[in-house]
Amino acid sequence: DAGVIQSPRHEVTEMGQEVTLRCKPISGHNSLFWYRQTMMRGLELLIYFNNNVPIDDSGMPEDRFSAKMPNASFSTLKIQPSEPRDSAVYFCASSLERGDTEAFFGQGTRLTVV
Amino acid sequence: KQEVTQIPAALSVPEGENLVLNCSFTDSAIYNLQWFRQDPGKGLTSLLLIQSSQREQTSGRLNASLDKSSGRSTLYIAASQPGDSATYLCAVRGSQTDSWGKLQFGAGTQVVVTP
After folding, report:
1. Distance CA A45, CA A58 (A)
2. Are B76 and B84 in contact, with CB atoms under 8 Å apart?
């Protein structure tokens, strides 16, 4: 398996624009996590899905952020409108639904909002 | 609410010394604990996974222990090498209803191994 695939790897956008980050989990994995990493706050869990259903979105910072998982092989994280403080590295991770299994991370998307 | 703490925040050792990295967590209702490595500008690489029922897990020069009742895990890296320089993160996976399945991270320990 190619692992967790995220796109794009880098995104530079202007304040106010819509940004969409994409994630393809490992085939067969049915838990998916979105994280944001910054120097100040470390790794923050934004939202996670089990079997395409959002289980906990308490980490989503505000209504400008939304996430979807229309099927088992694809998820998106959207920011609309984007702000400079959204600049961070966004990671996607996946695992089997069973709690005792290993989680695997993608390479991340580095977002810069200018 | 689960809190995960890693001490120290940074560590510098000469090549050949053993590394000891600590991770503590406040809620013992966990499925497992996972150690990751992150190189600058890169993603997270899984190193070891310890199930809640296990006390120890080993892979090559790496050994991780888990004391669930006291909320602690330690990662040992034997005979450190410059290539071990990276940030090491621990994460716990919750098993309680309000934290079920959540993977929560500590802030990491930044390690530098000098030649």
Report:
1. 9
2. no
Task: Give the Cα separation of B57 and A65 in Å (integer).
Answer: 38
Average pLDDT value for residue range A15-19: 97
Which of A43, A91, A104, A109 has the highest number of chain B CBs within 10 A, making it the mutation to test binding with B? Answer: A43
Choose the mutation target among B39, B42, B44, B52 for the interface with A, i.e. most A CBs under 10 Å: B44
Checking if the pLDDT of A13 tops 90, the result is: yes
- For the segment B43-86, what is each residue's pLDDT rounded down to a tens digit? 999 999 999 999 999 999 999 999 999 999 999 999 999 999 99
Q: How many CA atoms lie within 13 A of B43 on its CB side?
A: 20
Question: Span A28-46, mean pLDDT?
Answer: 93
Query: B43: which chain A residues are within 8 Å (Cβ-Cβ)?
Result: 91, 105-108
DSSP string, A35-82: EEEETTTEEEEEEEEETTEEEE-TT--STTEEEEEEETTEEEEEESS-
**Kind of pairing, strands A10-13 and A5-7?**
unpaired
B64 and B74 in contact (C-beta within 8 Å)?
yes
CB contact under 8 A, A103 and B93: yes
Indicate whether B97 pLDDT > 80.
Answer: no
Whether the CB-CB separation of A82 and A113 falls below 8 Å is answered with yes
Percent of chain B with pLDDT over 90: 82
B106 touches B90 (CB < 8 A): yes
